[in-house]
Amino acid sequence: MAAACGSGSLKGLGQLARRGLLVSLGAGGRARCIASSGAGSCGRGWPGTGRPLLLGAAFALGGAFGAYRTLQSRFQGQQHLAEQEAAKLPGDNLQLTLYQYKTCPFCSKVRAFLDYHGLPYEVVEVNPVMRREIKFSAYRKVPILLASAGSTLQLNDSSVIISAFKTYLISRKSLDEIMSYYPAMKATNDRGKEVVEYGNKYWLMLDEKETLNVYPAKEARVEEMKWRQWADDWLVHLISPNVYRTAGEALASFDYIVHEGKFGTVEGFFAKYVGAAAMFFISKRLKARHHLQDNVREDLYKAADDWVKAVGKHRMFMGGSQPNLADLAVYGVLRVMEGLEAFDDMMTHTMIQPWYRRMEAAIGQSRVAI
User: Fold this and answer.
1) What is residue 313's predicted lDDT score, i.e. its pLDDT?
2) Whole-model pTM?
3) Contacts for 342 with CB less than 8 Å, ≥ 6 apart
4) Is 355 exposed, middle or buried (0-12, 13-18, 19+ CB in 10 A)?
5) Cα(325)–Cα(163) distance, rounded to whole angstroms?
6) Cβ density class 230-263: b for 16+ within 10 Å, e for less
7) What is the rounded distance in angstroms from the CA atom of residue 101 to the CA atom of residue 26?
8) What's the pLDDT at 157?
9) Could you give the angle at the alpha carbon of 103 between the alpha carbons of 102 and 109, nearest 5°?
10) Are 38 and 106 in contact (CB under 8 A)?
11) Are 331 and 112 in contact (CB under 8 A)?
């Protein structure tokens, strides 16, 4: 499944339902992707932005001081590598432009990655109806990242963008060479529709020495890839049914989407009222398609607690003392619900809040350091 928010027309609401796309009539395809069926791109947009907070008492959750010291020693190699990356970030010779829908979870993943690594970039919000902003591209989903350094290279699919740029930051191979490792391939999805897939998208293309620096233990690489894919293949499917769970929640979600998106007056009115009504019913189909419980909150709560359990009691992040790509992916997906009832319920009824606040602080500190 593609890791991007796809495009589409207003008539595409029914099509979105058939494709399993979570639409929120917003930027990027006549509708915004709240939770796409894709594994790294949005066909529509999604609500949510991050609000950096102070780190607070994050270290308290690391357990006893002795346990923390052990964890700190274990992951000091990763921390040193992160510092090295920050010292060699691209200068003015590499200009990045992100074409997005602000509320798309896959676009949110890419922003989280770029912000955390201190990479400056320009944002172009795509109009959901006309999509003039991406008329240059045959690829009709977002995010799209243009990297310009003399010539311009287009990167598609959120997971490919993240893997390719992480590889670039570490190896300093050319982006052209790196992108050759992520070939686009035509495939048929479980609904018989032809889609574009990208090979190797959860892999970093590193040599043996670089791999050991990033992943001191082999299990760390396997774990990161597993949970990155989990975020794309499962977590995003929980967003739509939860934010459109009731008529009131659907209207609140579209109110946010219209406010944050790039809509004209008529488009915004149509998106808010017609889109909310349509997605309220479409979300019921999505619930059935993905075999969710009648109370979809229970699936969201379980996913949040499953993630917290995977991180464990003695790690600040899945990456140890620093977030890894799985941390950034899960955070990026979840934060599109901020300001909505589903997000508040998740924070209240699960154990995810301490980790989530640590992620906000980690990304906020990186922004300040730019």
Assistant:
1) 95
2) 0.76
3) 239, 242, 243, 245, 249, 297, 300
4) buried
5) 8
6) bbbeebbbbbbbbbbbeeebbbbbbbbbbebbbb
7) 7
8) 96
9) 80
10) yes
11) yes
CA distances (Å), 263 to each of 129, 257, 271, 272, 312, in order? Answer: 8, 10, 9, 10, 42
Report in angstroms the alpha-carbon separations of 124 from 32, 100, 155, 194, 231: 15, 6, 15, 28, 25
At 188 the pLDDT is: 86
Active site residues: 101, 104, 106-107
Sequence letter at residue 151: S
CA atoms within 13 A on the CB side of 17: 16
* Residue appearing with tokens 């979105």: 16
Residues 104 and 333 sit within 8 Å (Cβ to Cβ): no
Residue 312 token pair: 């464990």
Q: Within 10 Å of residue 93's Cβ, how many Cβ atoms?
A: 8
Contact 29, 12 (CB under 8 A): yes
Compute mean pLDDT per 10 residues along the chain, 370 residues long, and list them: 50 35 33 48 48 34 38 42 44 84 93 96 87 91 92 96 97 94 89 87 96 94 98 94 88 75 65 69 81 94 98 97 97 96 97 98 74
Amino acid symbol at 270 = F
